[in-house]
Amino acid sequence: MDASLKSAPKRAAAVGAALPHDSAHLHVTGQASYTDDLPEPRDLLHVAVGMSTVAHANVGGIDVTPVRDAPGVVDVCLAADIPGANNFGPIIDDDPIFATDLVQFVGQPIFAAIATSVDAARKAVRLASVDYEELEAILDPLSAVEKGSFVLPSETLVRGDPEAALAAAPNRVSRRVEVGGQDQFYLEGHIAMAIPQEDKCLLVYSSTQHPDEVQMLVAHATHRPANDVTVICRRMGGAFGGKESQAALIACIAALSADKTGHPCKLRLDRDDDMIMTGKRHDFVIDYDVGFDDTGRILGIDFEMASRCGMSADLSGPVNDRAMFSCDNAYFLENVRILSHRCKTNTVSNTAFRGFGGPQGMFAIEYAIEDIARALGKDPLEVRRRNFYGKDERNVTQYLQTVEDNVIDEIFDQLVASSDYQERREDISAFNAGSRILKRGISITPVKFGISFTNTLLNQAGALVHVYKDGTVQLNHGGTEMGQGLYIKVAQIVADEFQIDIGNIRITAADTSKVPNASATAASSGADMNGMAAKKAAAKIRARLTEFAAKHFDVAEADIEFGDNEVRVGDTTVSFAQLVQLAWADRVPLSATGFYKTPKINYDRDTFSGQPFFYFAYGAAVTEVVVDTLSGENRALRVDILHDCGDSLNPAIDIGQVEGGYVQGVGWLTSEELWWNSRGELGTHAPSTYKIPTCSDLAADFRVELMQSNPNPEDTIYRSKAVGEPPLMLALSAFHAIRDAIATDACPAPELRAPATPEAILDALDTCQELNDE
Ligand code: MTE
Ligand code: MOS
Question: Of 109, 330, 447, 759, which residue is least crowded by CB atoms under 10 Å?
Answer without folding.
Answer: 759
